[in-house]
Each structure stands twice: as C-alpha cells, then as structure tokens.
C-alpha cells in the first residue's frame, strides 16, 4: 500500500518535471495556436498548449472564422468524448476572450461536426504562479524549484 503510494507519487512528480521542462512562459495574452497556427483543424493545439505555461490571470484569445468553427468550454468528460451538447460556455462570434483566473484545468472544443474528434480541442493547465501574481517570462526557474521540493517530499515519504 505505502509502496504503491510511493510509486504513484514518483510518477506524478516525474510527469510534473517533464511538463515544466518542456513548457516555457511565452505569453500572458496568448492567442490560441499562435504563432503559425490558429483555432482550426490544421494546428496541433496540444503542441501549442504544451509549448506554453499558463498562470492565473493569463488571457487566452480565440480567433476563428465563425462560419467554420466555434469555441465551447466543456467539462473533462465532454472534452474526452467530444460532446458538444452541454457546454459550460459557448463563443460563436469569431472570437473568445478567456480569463484563466484560477489554478486548474480548462477544456475547450470546437462544436462543429467532427472537428473535436479531428483534433480541434485544447486542454489548458493553469499552474500556481511562482510569485503569487502573473509574471510573464520569469516563472520557469521557480516552478522547477518547487518541483524539486516535491521530489524531496516524495523522498521523505518513501521512508
Ligand atoms: C501533436 O503534438 C503532440 C505533442 O507534441 C504529439 O504528441 C502529437 O502526436 C501531435 N499530433 C499530431 C496529429 O501530429
Ligand atoms: C482575470 O481574473 C482575475 C481573477 O478573477 C482578475 O483579478 C483579473 O482582473 C481578470 N483579468 C481581466 C483582464 O479581466
Ligand atoms: Cu471547428
């Protein structure tokens, strides 16, 4: 039981470190898919999300052709199953300004037929700001340090 918890915790820590190591703080007002992509079927939105790190107070902007796409904020369950019938919020006018006001995960899909299943979906992980406020371009090192603390904690718990 304790061994199981230890393995699980180490796995969580490794995932956290991997995420921090690949993400960089590249925006505080972040246009989804930019640069080089957009909220469409061509952009690898998972890669876009993973190439950024988001803190509370960051803003993400959706820009899209409203005759081709929309933006639905959904639950994790609806994100996973690409269910568009039960959105938390819907943006259908070609834009969408989302305030990532709190730590947590937000889920967005396109509600047009087949688009989510084809990959037009994005999960945004909002991390605790290292300084308590949004600090573009200065967070990564501090986040690494707190990941180190978690490793230390895991080591202590292992004994
Ligand atoms: C999108 O990017 C992710 C992360 O880099 C990668 O794992 C995935 O295979 C890519 N998807 C496509 C369809 O290329
Ligand atoms: C975003 O939300 C936070 C927390 O509610 C708030 O303090 C901040 O002013 C908001 N930012 C904008 C641009 O509305
Ligand atoms: Cu779409």
Inertia-based shape: globular
| CATH class term of the largest domain | Mainly Beta
Strand proportion: 15-25%
Q: Which ligands accompany this protein?
A: 2-acetamido-2-deoxy-beta-D-glucopyranose, copper (II) ion
Helix content bin: 25-40%
Report the end-to-end length measured between terminal Cα atoms: 13 Å
Q: Segments where pLDDT lies below 50 for 5+ residues?
A: 11-18, 134-157
Structural class: alpha+beta
Number of helices: 4
Order of helices and strands: HEHEEHEEEEH
Strand order of the largest sheet: 4-3-6-7
The CATH topology name of the largest domain reads Immunoglobulin-like
Based on DSSP secondary structure assignment, what is the total number of beta strands?
7
Q: Please, how many domains?
A: 2
What's the CATH H-level homologous superfamily of the largest domain? Answer: Cupredoxins -  blue copper proteins
Mean of all residue-level pLDDT scores:
80
For the report, how would you describe the main beta sheet?
A: 4 strands, antiparallel
Signal peptide: 1-23
Organism: Rhynchospora tenuis
Keywords: Glycoprotein, Metal-binding, Signal
Pfam families: Cu_bind_like
């Amino acid at each position: 039981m304790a061994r199981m918890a230890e393995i699980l915790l180490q796995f969580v820590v490794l995932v956290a470190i991997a995420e921090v190591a690949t993400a960089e703080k590249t925006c505080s007002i972040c246009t989804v898919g930019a640069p080089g992509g957009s909220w469409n079927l061509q952009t690898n939105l998972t890669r876009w999300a993973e190439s950024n790190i988001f803190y509370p107070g960051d803003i993400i902007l959706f820009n899209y052709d409203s005759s081709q796409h929309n933006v639905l904020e959904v639950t994790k369950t609806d994100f996973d199953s690409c269910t568009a019938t039960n959105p938390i919020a819907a943006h259908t006018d070609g834009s969408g300004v989302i305030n990532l006001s709190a730590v947590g995960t937000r889920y967005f899909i396109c509600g047009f037929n087949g688009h989510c299943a084809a990959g037009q979906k994005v999960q945004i992980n909002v991390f605790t700001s290292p300084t308590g406020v949004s600090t573009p371009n200065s967070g990564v090192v501090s986040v690494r340090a707190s990941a180190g603390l978690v490793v230390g904690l895991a080591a202590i718990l292992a004994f």
